[in-house]
Every structure is written in C-alpha cells, then in structure tokens.
C-alpha cells in the first residue's frame, strides 16, 4: 500500500461515491500507489450502510448481514482492520417460527447439499412429498447455467412452480432465504440471480451460508474505519462534496464538485445507478436509453422496537407466514444497557414503504407478538421506522442486460456499484467485488504518470 512516505506512482484517480464500492475502489487504487481523491456527497462514508444516534441509541439504517461465502466483503473488513468487530456463526443456524410452530435450519458437518438434510426432514412446514420435491428442485437449481442469457429471462417463481414447488414450500423455504438476499419475492426475481444466490450460498459449500453480522454500528464498521484506512493509504477523502459534472479533457478528466474542478487521469464512478446515468458522458455505456429507470428500485423497511425486557432469546429469528420476515436483536450494537432493542427487517417492502408509522405499529407489533410470546407481556418503550426506498435495484428477469461492466467505452472512466455487472444481486459483497474490479481494470489500463519504479503497477496492486 502507498501510505505516507511512499512516492505515488500511478495515475491520478478520482473515485466518485463513498459507499462500499467506492471505498474498495479507492483503497485498491491507493494501495497501487495512485494518488486518489474520493468524493462523497454526504458527510459520512459507507453509503447505504450507515448509522445514526437517536436518544442515546445507535441505530443502523437497516440490518445488514453477510454470509461466509462473501469472501471479498470479508477481505475488505480485514483491510479496514475491523474483522473482529463482526460475528460469524460457526455453523448456519436459523431459528424459524410462525405463531404456533418452531423449526430450525441448522446445518450438519456434512458436505453440501447433505448438510441441510436433517434440518429439512424436521422442517415443520413441509410434508414428506414437499421434502422430496424440494430436494429434486434444489438439485435442478444447482445445475442451472447462470451464464446462459436465457436464464435471466425467466422468473424464479415460474421456475419453482415448473419444478413442482407448492406455495407453502415457496413461502416457508425458498422465499425465506430468497427475499432477504434478493430483495424480491420469487415471482419478481430473475432465475439467474436467484440461482446464483442459492448455488453459492446453499448448494455448493456446506459452510457458505453461515451468517455474519456487525457487533458495532455500521457507521463505525464501514465509514469511520474506511476514512482512517484511506487516509493512512495516502488518499484524500472529500465528504460533503457532491460531484455535479464529469468532463473529458484531452489528457484525462475534470471532476467538478462544489464548483471546484479537479483534474485527474482516471475516474471510478461508484454512485447509484440513476446518479451514474446523470453523470455519464454520452457514449460511455452501450445500454438502452432508459436503462437506469428500467433497473428501478426495491425498498427495504426496518421496524425498530425497544422493549423494557429481553423478549428474543436468540440473536435473530425468521418468521413464516408473517410480515415480520426477520427479527434481529440490536441490543449489543446499539449501546442499550437495559431492556432489548429489536429490528424487524422487511425486504421487498413495496407494501409498507409509504405507510405511516402508526399504521406500521398496528401491523407489526401484533405480528411480533405472535412470533415472540415473551413480548406480549413486555412494555414497548420505543417504536420507530427507517425506510430505504432505493435500497437495491429490482432484481427482475431481464436485468442482466441493464448492468454494465467496470470498463466504459471512454478511456480512463470506470464504473463500480452493487448495481453493475457483478453476477450478484445488490449486496455488500457485490459492491466490494465491483470496486475491486474497477480498480484492477483502471490500474492495468491507465499508464503511470511518473513511474520511477521497476515494479509494474499491476503487480503492486495484486
Ligand atoms: C436497509 C438495507 C438493508 C440491506 N441489507 C443488506 C444485507 O443484509 N446484506 C447485504 O449484503 N446487502 C444489504 N443491503 C445492500 C447493500 O447495503 C448495498 O448493496 C451496498 O451497500 C451498496 O454499496 P454501493 O457502494 O454500491 O452503493 P451506495 O452505498 O449507494 O454508495 C454510493 C455513494 O455515492 C454517493 N453519491 C451519490 N451521488 C453522488 C455524487 N453526485 N457525488 C458524490 N457522491 C455521490 C452516495 O451518497 C453514496 O454514499 C441493504 C441495503 C439497505 C438499504
């Protein structure tokens, strides 16, 4: 890495957008000894993963989890020096409940897909015939070619029904995992993205789906740690700096933020897709004219409830047949030292995103109390809602053709973001992969401006 005292060798780089994609791209370029300036319009780094303080409580904008198979996200945590601030399950274990029944998706120490066999046998929402049909569909899903463009034209829901999956199996099993990872119901999701998630997460390596989460507020885990790491790597971080224009010059690029123009040799544009569409110069990407609108958005709502006593005995619980899809114990990360703070994470939340808080309270407290009998006798001390309207792009069939790769048609201009063509749905892992990819392409494409070293930049980067 460059760090202080190491002469910069590579091209001058502007990274626009300080989410996980931009942070990763900026670190990649800085570690390759490029002089980097990161422009972020908000006052913090971390993008869609952030926290705020509310009456002494640290609140994340939305519960974020990762899986053991999120190798590049975990590498970023290590690069930021915060890998010990997350908890990663030793073995996948998901307590699943409805109002009357309790189940558990716990893996055994067996190779995939046998690791989930015992859990399936005891999964209370499936009949014996459902279990047999589920296994047949899972094996068929393992064989789906996610690189075949036709796979992206099919809806996951249609594919599941064509493979004998009944509504109850889709609701209690496929959507339990799928909605949380894809941010879409099976009927609204591309088979290519769904198959990617299930193949990588559940059907290939037994330990891939062990679940991890932060033990500290997301802002400290990502934003604050990134600012320190970037500064230590020699990068300049400009927060509160909204880029309003990106212009090509005869030798490079001009980035305009707050009326100030900065000349650079190369740019990584790591902003959300509609912001990218507004900044990209004509001819940069070969996409349909309405590509950003077509990629669309899918919302996530988090319902936050503080009880006067512990009501959830596990770190999280998943719900079947309820709007309370996943409930997390936020107490340790929030700084609360009395009572329990829960967050209900509601993905694909179109139904709830515009509903007033009072209405969500009427809907979600009874749902929570059906899932958590101990909550019925507890007092609700606080109830509030966070809404992320633009949480992810809509992972619908036909999305793949709307996601550009890291290289644009214009020299020195690269794209990153969870919405770019990573093969993953919009996740932290996808964002990090996109940032790594943009930085790697930039470093290998753009010649160094004052290379006094015999070491090629591409080797420094690796
Ligand atoms: C509530 C919620 C829950 C989620 N849960 C999970 C989860 O459990 N697991 C998971 O893996 N993923 C989850 N995600 C998705 C994940 O957070 C995102 O996919 C990822 O963080 C996106 O990172 P990014 O860098 O691509 O984009 P962003 O985080 O959107 O970063 C883009 C940045 O660009 C900045 N910007 C925009 N325009 C400009 C401009 N003109 N100039 C300068 N800066 C600009 C923005 O302010 C932003 O900081 C969740 C998302 C939300 C919202």
From TrEMBL:
The UniProt record lists the keyword DNA repair: no
Keywords: Oxidoreductase
Superkingdom of this protein's organism: Bacteria
Pfam families attached to this UniProt entry: Amino_oxidase
Gene Ontology MF annotations: oxidoreductase activity
Keyword check for Oxidoreductase: yes
Residues involved in FAD binding: 243
Domain Amine oxidase span(s) in chain numbering: 20-442
Cofactor dependency: FAD
Name of protein: Phytoene dehydrogenase
Taxonomy of the source species: Bacteria, Bacillati, Actinomycetota, Actinomycetes, Mycobacteriales
